[in-house]
Amino acid sequence: MKKVLLFLSLLSMSVYAQQFKPVYPIPSAKQLAWSELEYYGFIHFNMNTFTNVEWGEGKESPSSFNPTALDCNQWARIAKMAGMKGLILTAKHHDGFALYPSKYTSHSVAKSPWKNGKGDVVKELSAACKKYGLKLGIYLSPWDRFHPAYGTDEYNQVYAKMQEELLTQYGPIFEFWYDGANGEGPNGKKQVYDWPLFHSMVNKYQPNAVQFSDAGPDIRWVGNERGFAYDTMWSPILRDKIYPGCPDFDNYRNGQENGTHWVSPEVDVSIRPGWYYHPDQDDKVKSPDSLLKIYAASVGRNANLLLNIPVDTRGLIHENDSASLMGFAQLRAKSLVNLLKGKTGPLFDGNKSTYWMATEKNNQINVTLKTAEKINTLMLQEPIALGQRVRSFEVELEDEAGNKELIKAGTIGHKRMITFKERKLKSFQIRFTGSRGPVLISNLEAYRFISTRNEPLFQ
Q1: Which of 91, 206, 377, 423 is the most exposed place for a label (fewest CB within 10 A)?
Q2: What pLDDT does residue 14 have?
Q3: Burial of 9 (0-12, 13-18, 19+ CB in 10 A)
Q4: Peptide bond into 265 cis (omega under 30)
């Protein structure tokens, strides 16, 4: 590693959390733990896989569900090799078909020919996740186009009972995922969901699990399904102003600087155009290069990345999806090499409990490299246990020929990656132009993101 000379425009201070007052709101312990996961997988596999649609109608025959070679160990093994930290399974989608033998619906694997009605996909995935050291998450759609009680008060109890089954029979759950879709049931009625009841079930049986929806309560939708967060991405949000399916959600998708609750964003995106497996999309799998760009625009913008893998009718992750995931893992291994590693001080020690602090008179970090390095990405982190502070900042780059470029940016949060056209970087300055309270930075790194062709990814 080439030697780097670092100059700071103010005294570097190795300071600790107890010396600073938090800027509220702040994350809970389970929200902090969730942020550290950064990247995990979504498994869309259900009745829709076999009917070749995205949204089923609830009229499908259970006999259609019959995977020929289902292997949850294959899912977990590939996810582990891909660097994922967990898998979230669609235990029940909008059509109401359950992947486990629930006592509260007649539309489930218990009525299917798969394993003569004795199968349980949730149980098999739970065991596979345990085997490969992955966390297990559950998606349970509140919308149910099959259940005869949907649209009545009784259905809220049915849903809560299904939650109880999933939360008590399959071991630890790290995330419970509510879909915001809410349409009519078989009786033509829409359901008024009892969200306090649903949330209480998770808090009662899996208190360490985070709950996802448009409004949280613990983590929230980023506002699109294309794989990116935004330049301004606050974890604080006015949580009481929104709810799942909220029609004006776009007004809240960036979070709010004056948010009342800590509800960090999650970026959900599929590796294919669809969420479920469709044979005609086998040649439309996102490339490793595309996935790395998504990573920089999600994990690199104060969000976690939930990457969907549509399992095929065999019950296996398709070879094309697996190959792309492995390529993505290889690119991350080559690209996430910190070119500032080995330097001393709170910005470089890898300790989230030590920070560099700005003051009103001195709010700039200056970094000069002894030998110019090929760089196209800078990464900063705030110690979010003390709240999210940076409102805006700018980075001035200078290459070895003295050419300069100024990049203006919004928030930082858990992790912020600034990408730019690759150059042999000689020096850079980071200036903080707006904040909620004193600026604290716990980590600063520099990378060269490269493509599958060993070329700079950010041209």
Answers
A1: 423
A2: 42
A3: middle
A4: no
444: left (phi over 0), alpha (psi -120 to 50) or beta: beta
pLDDT of amino acid 123:
98
* Domains of the chain, CATH where assigned: 4-24+337-447 (2.60.120.260), 29-335 (3.20.20.80)
Structure tokens at 179: 């879909």
pLDDT(10) > 60: no
Q: What is the 3-state secondary structure (H, E, C) of 190-217?
A: CCCCCHHHHHHHHHHHCCCCEEEECCCC
CB-CB neighbours of 172 under 10 Å: 13
Query: What is the average pLDDT value for the chain, to the nearest integer?
Result: 94
Classify residue 447 by its DSSP letter: E
Q: Round to whole Å and give the CA distance between 158 and 104.
A: 6
CA-wise closest residue to 274 among 242, 310, 307: 310
pLDDT tens per residue, range 50-74: 999 999 999 999 999 999 999 999 9
**What are 378's strand-pairing partners?**
418, 446
- For residue 413, CA distances in Å to 27, 28, 72, 86, 234 come to 11, 15, 35, 22, 7
User: Residue 270: CB partners within 8 Å, gap ≥ 6?
Assistant: 42, 44, 225, 307, 308, 310
d(CA 411, CA 251): 17
Rg, C-alpha atoms of the chain = 23
Can you tell me the distance from the alpha carbon of 56 to that of 73, in angstroms, rounded to the nearest whole number? 27
Strand 86-92 with 39-44, pairing: parallel
Q: For residue 301, how many other CB atoms are within 10 A of its CB?
A: 26
CA proximity to 55, closest of 241, 209, 187, 183: 183
Asked which of 6-20, 143-157, 277-291 is least confident by mean pLDDT, the reply is 6-20
Give the global pTM.
0.96
pLDDT at 393 over 50: yes
Q: According to the model, what pLDDT value does residue 1 have?
A: 37
CB 107 within 8 A of CB 97: yes
